[in-house]
Amino acid sequence: METKGLVEQSPPLSAHEALVEANRCLNCYDAPCTHACPTHIDVPRFIKKIATGNLNGSARAIFEANLLGATCSRVCPVEELCEGACVLGSEHKPIMIGRLQRFAMDHAYRNGARLFQVATPTGKKVAVIGSGPAGLSCAGELAKRGHQVTIFEKRELAGGLSTYGIIVLREPIEIAQAEVGMIERLGVRVQRNSELGRNLGFGDLRKNFDCIFLSLGLGVTPELGIPGEEFIIDGLSYIERSKMNGNQMKVGRDVVVIGAGNTAIDCATIARRLGANRVTMVYRRSSAEITAYPHEFEFVKNEGVEFRFLAQPARVLSSDGHVAGLECVRTELGSPDSSGRRTPSPMAGSEFTIPADQVIKAIGQKKPALAAMLGLEMNNNFIKVDPDFETSIAGVFAGGDCIRAKNAASTVMAVQDGKLAAMAIHRRIQNG
To answer: What does the pLDDT read at residue 4?
Structure first.
């Protein structure tokens, strides 16, 4: 099979293409696309500025609402959000809002545009734990308001999921690092290899900073609890390998991916594009219950990935220390569980085997274990926050995936959390 490789899926718009597309916009009053965007970017405004050739003004309009506009232009499910709300979508083709946003963002980064005036220093200090989208957004908004912000990141590279966990087809690592650099140029200090609970003390942070923002994300992938699990590769690790050394990573010929969410689809896409002869996704529920976005489901089917629905992994088969297959049992669906999806139950005597030399699991992530260690009040194992994103400890705020007890987690929601939390922290500091 000829491999397609891992390159950014959508090519950038040319200047002519962007101009033609921008002039299709109706510039709606009280635009539905703006309401559909979790960060409420003024979409007609930034598109109008592209149409008039004011690309710096377009980028500024995006940055005012979303400091991580370059990432979001690539990874947002625009089909479900802004483009899905476009009034041209019902009878015509919706405006390519995501690609126009990328056009403006690429211009700003390519030309090193300085679009912000940082406020006079306040002398107040804020610690941000974690440099994912929520952390970067919060840090940047606070720095714009004159506060001294330090981000503490446990890994070598900042950027969180954007750097390590989003497939190259959607966001190359260079884009995530460019955004980190932009946040640093606002005056934010990023202290890498600094992990809360390992070489960073919570008590010291509370003593040395006026406020703290927790952008912890989620934990590791949970265990399946089946024999042979030691042979299974973690899905997020698989994506990370593809971003850091995709040309050297080992990809099986017959790959099985356990799960049917967006991360599972990314893993299946990586395997398929890097040379796997056959990729099969195994999911214990039906196609009606998958958690991936509908457009992602259609995309991966077009990549040639196969599905085995109503199938639950039972054990990994091995021979001489190598994966030989995945034994599964068929399931039937009963009444809905707390998530609203029907509960799968194994059917006795229905075992079958899928040949495989590589098995990957992408079945979600554990809740943030660090939160309990810090003594924070929890909500369904997520950090509990009030409407101002403040936790049960005064002066300690949180946002992003670590608080997302309801609704789906996404990059753009984390960015909005960080922005709103920054405003609340700013008010707290102003009010003493």
So the answer is: 67
